[in-house]
Amino acid sequence: MIRVENLHMHFGGIRAVNGASIEIASGSITGLIGPNGAGKTTLFNVIAGHYQPTSGHVYLDGQEITGLPPHELFHRGLLRTFQIAHEFSTLTVRDNLMMVPGGQMGEGLLNAWLRPGQVAAQEADLRRKADEVIEFLEISHVADELAGNLSGGQKKLLELGRTMMVDAKIVFLDEVGAGVNRTLLNTIGDAILRLNKERGYTFCMIEHDMDFISRLCDPVIVMAEGAVLAEGTAEAVKSDERVIEAYLGTGLKNKEPTA
């Protein structure tokens, strides 16, 4: 579904992404891990159109999307969430969801005057869909709560819910577990798995919690110094000497044997 070829993203003399090439298969939940400064978030930002790459190519379903702006990628079904949730804090959870689809008739003043019935019908459809998403994510108890009052984990669920309001092909999740307690993290994980298995969502996720990655992701891609270091199952990459060295600064071969 996504193919990245020899991607470079340089900021002056800093090579944040340095020749990375990855593939994300349709229907997969792909994990992207690596030490801080490995280039993971920069790679996400290039794929999602927030940065124009220095060089290299990005393809979605065989069509080049390199450098397309986020709003165009949104309409092609490529969505990206952020480590810090971007909710509308003064709107309710339901209203946050209802705002997501673009081109709503109610956005035009003339439609509100001349086609009030059609505007009301579309709004009712959006409300029904939002309520289905709220029920799916098991957050009905906060449906009418202002989004700014939610916990960190609930805001991450709301971000996930916003991707469900449109026909997403692939969703890039940036540290969906950051600052989330274990109970809500399990709820988020369950929702991701259900979206993948029941609705065919494809995910790529940056995450530091290896238990969470191991539960959800296959394959797992490891980045270091802006390039791909290793790829495989979670268990395989956790035991890879190069990965251990990238994270810890030394490989197993340099450890003193225990008695």
Protein model, in words:
With about 260 residues, the chain is an alpha/beta fold. Helices cover about 40% and strands about 20% of the residues. It folds into two domains: about 1-85 and about 165-250, P-loop containing nucleotide triphosphate hydrolases (Rossmann fold); about 90-150, no CATH class. Helix 6 (about 150-165) packs parallel to helix 7 (about 180-200). It starts with a strand and ends in an 11-residue tail after the last helix.
Tell me the layout of helices and strands.
Elements: E1 2-11, E2 14-24, E3 29-33, H1 40-47, E4 55-60, E5 63-64, H2 70-75, E6 78-80, H3 93-98, H4 109-114, H5 116-136, H6 152-164, E7 170-174, H7 182-199, E8 202-206, H8 210-216, E9 220-224, E10 227-232, H9 234-238, H10 241-248
Parallel strand pairs: 3-8, 3-9, 6-7, 7-8
Antiparallel strand pairs: 1-2, 1-4, 4-5, 9-10
Helix pairs in contact: 6-7
Pfam family, one: ABC_tran
Protein name: Branched-chain amino acid transport system ATP-binding protein
Domain ABC transporter: 2-250
Briefly say what this structure is.
With 259 residues, the protein is of the alpha/beta class.
Given the helix and strand composition, which structural class is it? alpha/beta
List SSEs in N-to-C order. Answer: EEEHEEHEHHHHEHEHEEHH
Strand order of the largest sheet: 6-7-8-3-9-10
Mean pLDDT: 89
CATH topology of the largest domain: Rossmann fold
Keywords:
259 residues; alpha/beta; Rossmann fold; 2 domains; 6-stranded mixed beta sheet; 4-stranded antiparallel beta sheet; 10 helices; 10 strands
